DNA sequence: CAGTGGTCTAGACCACTCC
DNA sequence: GAGTGGTCTAGACCACTGA
């Protein structure tokens, strides 16, 4: 029993809603009912319900109750950090990762600027191509500060680097900033991706921070235009 | 005094951090200190701090304290519903809105599908071009269900439709789903925008829902590739 | 060890919706 | 009026950090 009460309530309902066991439009038990059925306090129940609201599962209306939303169309919420491996599992297509390079090298001026270090300082560079159903769709270029990540190998790069960082190195990833824009394709893009003559790529820049607020990774994800999609769930800030 | 205590604490610190009055890296007063200095309870203080966390202003570390993050590079968070008018204010460039059409018409099959109604049912259609520094960059196509929005005029379309909906019609906008993808430019795009020969546009589909969970608006925002940017702040979900 | 944030409790009053 | 969610209180115990 290491799970919190409110986490457990949240997980229970999140599962039921995601699996469709509780259909959209259903009214959830009131906070008072949940309070007694879980024999806990109301603030704890409210914490669980607010989590459900934030994740887009339910909608609360004052004086009426909590209602399950229709998340059927929410294909995959990329909001929240999502790595390629998690994503490909959700999409359920045949995918493959081709590691192009895993080296520790001197930072170019533009990379140094992104990582907030000096040009020429050493950085780990990992370049990977993501193949989806036989087509090379995504080019991932990752850069890590070597004071945080000492060693990287091709084997690690082929799997999930995040798993390695979190479970082996015990780095706690805290938050990230994403920027999405469209740029002209580079020679590298044309060489490594199946662009089919497309002149631009979607560029997702990702700045990843640790718990101590230090930036330690910068990633450029270069997507083929026609295969890119980003879904966001937004709540009106009152 | 209609403002909540926790809202007021949040606003105070959000302003100070955004204005730079509290620089990044600063340690905020502890929850106990805030508790007594605002003469309120700790849970209330925590509500305010959690809001600051969710908005990316601060970072809490157990056993240490709350620290101000470096949001200097967070240009404008488009996460959270942001209308064009809000956005243009933040960018601070000269912008103009050109209303192309404001009519009540029969829904085409694709629009009907998006709005979850039958083809041919009446919908309000508003088509606007956004001009930034003399160039026509964005094409906004809005569709409203007429059972919610009875009347729209060109004057309203030229201003902020959201203001009208919320303040005059008292519609409560609750949440929205955004999809970002890239599509081939249509003849309409080429006619209404200054595409400079670009063959594709960034398409932002926006589904807006009311408090009673009914979908009432669908918007297509078609952006010129080279002027599009989207910034997202994401927290690792534990 | 003292200080920090994370969780939880058992109450309270309010604003709102629906009948 | 009864029932709902929104806010708030004054405590409590825990896990973690740092000196």
From TrEMBL, chains A, B:
Keyword terms of this UniProt record: DNA-binding, Repressor, Transcription, Transcription regulation
Domain HTH gntR-type: 3-71
Record keyword Protein biosynthesis present: no
Gene3D superfamilies attached to this UniProt entry: Chorismate lyase-like, Winged helix-like DNA-binding domain superfamily/Winged helix DNA-binding domain
Family annotation (SMART domains): HTH_GNTR, UTRA
Pfam families for this protein: GntR, UTRA
Keyword DNA damage: no
Annotated PROSITE patterns: HTH_GNTR (PS50949)
BP GO terms, sorted: negative regulation of DNA-templated transcription
Domain of life: Bacteria
Gene Ontology MF terms in the entry: DNA binding; DNA-binding transcription factor activity
PANTHER family: HTH-TYPE TRANSCRIPTIONAL REGULATOR TRER, MANNOSYL-D-GLYCERATE TRANSPORT/METABOLISM SYSTEM REPRESSOR MNGR-RELATED
Protein name (database record): Trehalose operon repressor
